[in-house]
Amino acid sequence: MHMKAHYLDILQFRHAARRFHEHKAIAADELDYILEAGRLSPSSFGIEPWQFLVVTSDPLKRQLQSCCYGQEQVGTASAVIVILARKTLRIEDGYVEPLLRRDGDDLYENVLKGFYAGYTDALSPGQLGDYADKQCYLAAMNLMNAAAALGIDSCPLGGFDAEAVMSLLRVDTATFGVSMVLPMGYGTSRPEHRHRRAFDDVVTFVD
């Protein structure tokens, strides 16, 4: 019961912080905790199509802010996690096969290889990117909730110049795209009200 109540408290705490205290840093062990929560996120076929770039230096955060249309969250954050979505997800690309083999070569050869290839080979490059991007959002939610459990604020950003972000951070554009920019730190204010639709407006039980 305690854990159930505590998780809802975490969700009530989490909000999109618009600005952070610039000189209040996230402790290294707490940042590691948050990143570990992201690492443990679920993914389709267990392929973990994400990479986390962690930006903590003030000059680089300011440059990154300019790639995000000047949004203050980026420049004032203690740390900014840039979540990359992997593009190289076909069997022949080499990344996926070792992951699919983790439960044994027989399962891979007799089941997973054909099933996975049959699914992903039917996707266009754009659809494959969407497939990876959706999974990165699962990881992002775990990162934000883990931060909230520590009393740390965050703000998921989809507003950025992807090419500028990748150029600044020297991302291999043949391998990755930018899924999300996620600033974290200690917010300077909290919203007075949390607005969510009513339970009965959202949930329908189907018998």
TrEMBL record:
Signal peptide feature range: none
Gene3D superfamilies: NADH Oxidase
Pfam families per record: Nitroreductase (PF00881)
Lineage: superkingdom: Bacteria
Keyword list, A-Z: Flavoprotein, FMN, NADP, Oxidoreductase
Domain Nitroreductase stretches: 12-186
Cofactor(s) the record lists: FMN
Family statement drawn from the similarity comment of this UniProt entry: Belongs to the nitroreductase family.
Protein name: NAD(P)H-dependent oxidoreductase
Source organism: Sulfurimonas diazotrophicus
